[in-house]
Amino acid sequence: MIRARLDARCLMSCAVSLGLSLVLPAACAQAPSAMSGTSAAKALSVNTRGSGLGFTRAYREIKLSLPVAGRIERVLVQEGSRVREGQLLLHLDRTLEELEVQRRKLQFEDQARLQELRQRELTLIKQVSSLKDLLPGGLVSSKQVEDEELALGNVIAERKTVEATKHRERVDLSLAEEAYQRRHLRSPLDGIVTKVESYAGESIEPHATVMWVVDISRIRFIGTVRAQPGIGLKVGAPVRLRLGPEGQMGVRAAKLVYVSPVIDPASGRIDVIAEFDNTDGSVRPGLSGDILF
């Protein structure tokens, strides 16, 4: 660049000394500038109606906690672990809850008394039917028939009582199983563990955050655009996202999932949210960038 300028100055000096007029090419009159990142970024914004600033964030980022207090018995993951929905992450001490589940299960599964009553009920139904057939011929008395019907009614009532007890025992078993499960922390989504705040041996309070899990399979871009060019934006419209300082992290195609129905009177801008697929994990949440439309 410096040499080109020097050569141009020499030619101009010679021309002036000889009384000649000389028209230099634009390349000599002005040194060409190298293609910088800024120039490349400007080239990407050609044919765009408008743009705006914003930043990326994970599609979902969840703070995990347990609804009960207790001592952590085991942590099964660490920072950076990839987890699946429903995967066990840690559990508290659970010996008492496990024993309670076993006790309730044994109670509920004990069907001996109920089966006995059902069998007696069937037997009495047959006896009552037989006695009623013999009653018109005078072979049995009405008192015998009434006694058998009374016995049948008592058995039916007892059988219904036992059945109701079994229903309550089933509910008690479900409550015991729920108390047992509440001491287990499972992932609510497919994602990556980004932070573990409590470890084995520590006691925790109910609803205290013990772990963070993030889903970056999709990325959300949250930004604002000027009202005038952005007034026609609609949900579902395709946009481009230029990520990183001066677009150093490249450009991603995205789709608008939210366009604010109001304009901020203080800034004259509209809030927008766009999403794009990030199953390859190439974009990390937290990048700043531009939205082009």
Report on this model:
- The protein is an alpha+beta fold and 293 residues long.
- It folds into three domains: 1-32, no CATH class; 37-62 and 212-292, Efflux pump adaptor protein, beta barrel domain (Elongation Factor Tu (Ef-tu), domain 3); 95-182.
- It is built from seven helices and twelve strands.
- It starts with a helix and ends with a strand.
What features would you highlight for this structure?
four-stranded antiparallel beta sheet; 3 domains; six-stranded antiparallel beta barrel; alpha+beta; 38% helix; 293 residues; 29% strand; 7 helices; disordered N terminus; Elongation Factor Tu (Ef-tu), domain 3
Order of helices and strands: HHHEEEEHHHEEEEHEEEE
CATH class of the largest domain: Mainly Beta
| Relative helix content | 25-40%
CATH architecture of the largest domain: Beta Barrel
Mind describing the biggest β-sheet? 6 strands, antiparallel, barrel
The counted number of beta strands is 12
Alpha plus pi helix count: 7
The overall number of domains is 3
The dominant shape is elongated
> Compute the gyration radius: what is it?
40 Å
> CATH superfamily of the largest domain, please?
Efflux pump adaptor protein, beta barrel domain
Strand order of the largest sheet: 1-8-11-10-9-12
On the 0-100 scale, what is the average pLDDT? Answer: 85
List low-pLDDT spans: 1-46
What share of residues are in beta strands? 25-35%
- The structural class is alpha+beta
